[in-house]
Here is the input.
Amino acid sequence: MRTYTYEVGDIVTLKKQHPCGSKEWEILRVGADFRLKCLGCGHQIMIARRLVEKNARDLRKKA
Ligand SMILES: [Zn+2]
Here is the structure.
């Protein structure tokens, strides 16, 4: 597990891909739970921070 500093607007790449085929998610909210938006289809999910940390492959900081 790598440690990233997660901020709203960053793009996180997760290990598992969404059914739409995308693995990239935009971070909409951080905290104990994150709100993520799929870049492929726009679907939004709430996910525990530890699951994001466990499954993150990459993090692109907001430009
Ligand atoms: Zn999707």
In short: The helical segments are 49-55. Residues 20 and 40 are 6 Å apart (CA to CA).
